[in-house]
Specification:
Blueprint: H1 17-32, E1 39-43, H2 46-59, E2 72-75, H3 102-110, H4 122-137, E3 152-155, H5 158-169, E4 177-179, E5 191-192, E6 204-211, E7 229-230, E8 247-256
Parallel strand pairs: 1-2, 1-3, 4-8, 5-7
Antiparallel strand pairs: 6-8
């Protein structure tokens, strides 16, 4: 009998064996793609920071003496949405003939019970991500940071990453957000940039932020905006100056999963088991030793 799915937000569940393989694949993919991170931020929940550590470890073994090992900065502010009372509990089924979800029905019945903790709101998550940006991302923008072209990797969780994306997006004027060549977002009609779609495990969004003073030097100067994709229309009665009006953001990749090609979850529940760092993969027994 299959084990029922449970809600996991801030619950510190371990990285699984399959998750570890995905993280290793991602680390190798980024390394082979020439990505050299200068800063790596991760949620302090182990399923996230273990993934970030795998990325950093693989970057440090590329034979480049100039590529110093980057330490993961673990941050509680990057945790997943807090589901309160519902953490670790099975999904509540929708009540028959009701328009409310099972969780909403339960909340209505028990919200005033002693000790009941509600789900973290979208507004609270947005405040968290705005704080993360102010403290950690904005100081690294081109022109604000002493090193040239900082490369930032953020490893977190699906819901909070979607919130972070919307917080980043609102910093830019609509005309300063562009799609890279050949980039296609899920079909079915016009899609707003706020809703690019969910991230798969280790699927990643790649962004490039260019200062307008450096635009002439950018290799992406010929990128055109996709007219079918735009932010929600803004009121025309007042023209607000966006904080990052002096920058252009280029969306280069959305939910990239190239590194997962051919990877299948081990059957029998093994792939969902807790990862043990002392374990070795079958392939490791057949690797040739270097002379």
């Amino acid at each position: 009998m299959a084990k029922p799915s449970t809600i996991a937000g801030v619950k510190d569940s371990a990285l699984t064996i399959h998750g570890s393989l995905q993280a290793e694949r991602l680390g190798r993919h980024l390394n082979l793609s020439g990505v050299k991170a200068s800063h790596v931020f991760a949620s302090d929940l182990q399923r996230a920071y273990r993934t970030a550590e795998a990325i950093c470890a693989l970057q440090s073994f590329n034979g480049d003496s100039d590529n110093e090992h980057v330490e993961v900065m673990k941050l509680a502010i990057l945790r997943e949405q807090d589901f309160g009372f519902y953490e670790g509990k099975p999904f509540y089924a929708r009540v028959r003939d009701s328009n409310m979800s099972g969780k909403d029905t339960h909340r209505l019945q028990h919200a005033k019970d002693p000790g009941f903790q509600d789900v973290e709101t979208k507004e609270a998550m947005a405040i968290r991500m705005d704080s993360f940006m102010d403290l950690h991302l904005l100081p690294l923008l081109p022109g604000s940071y002493s090193e040239k072209d900082p490369v930032v990797i953020i490893v977190s969780h699906g819901i909070i990453l979607s919130t972070l994306w919307r917080c980043i997006l609102k910093q830019f004027p609509v005309q300063n957000v562009q799609l890279g060549p050949g980039l296609a977002i899920r079909g079915g009609g016009p899609t707003t940039l706020e809703h690019l779609g969910g991230w798969s495990n280790t699927g990643y969004l790649e962004l490039e932020i260019v200062s307008h003073t450096d635009t002439s030097e950018s290799t992406n100067a010929d990128i055109a905006v996709n007219p079918a994709v735009a932010q929600k229309s803004e009121p025309t009665t007042a023209v607000a100056v966006k904080p990052l009006h002096g920058y252009t953001m280029i969306i280069k990749t959305v939910n990239c999963k190239d590194h997962l090609a051919g990877l299948k979850r081990t059957g029998g529940g093994v792939g969902s088991s807790k990862f043990d760092a002392g374990q070795r993969t079958i392939e490791s027994f057949f690797k040739k030793r270097k002379a």
